[in-house]
Amino acid sequence: MEANTPKTLDKAQSSPIDAKDRPFLEKVMVKGKLGDVFDARDVTEVVYRVMRDLMTTEAADRVAEELADKPAEISDDKALQNTIVDLWKDTNPIVGFLSRVRPPWQGPGIFKIDSDRFLFRVANEGGVQPNVDREEVVKAVFSATKDELSPERIEEIASWLPDHVRKLWEEA
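The chain above was modelled as a monomer; its predicted structure follows.
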């Protein structure tokens, strides 16, 4: 019977999964060179938290509308069965509430989030390992996010980001 096996079945056939077809957290994990999807989930949540801190509640809600009902990861593990909007909204109820009632952290003052503070917060709040490039991780989250958004939302988010972080957004 083996002699009659088609030659195409004799070779192990596998074609790489196109990046656009990978689940969201796997895109972040691969592009950000992270250890696993749990790290990708955690850092994504922090990047989103800092992004929301820069935006008005209305702008953040428009982003949430577009991210709704899109799976973050296809998995039997309940810890990964979030939708992307679950990551956007923040799993910490206090942080989620505060982000809805305070003004955007832009302009003069001690709470202004510039590019350095943005990247500092991602590295420190996201538990990014010292050997991981924080800009690469941010670009990975940005790239995976942009795959899920309309051109209008992509442009709106860019308008809220500080100079160097906006450049990372545009490069992603």
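The chain has a mean pLDDT of 82.
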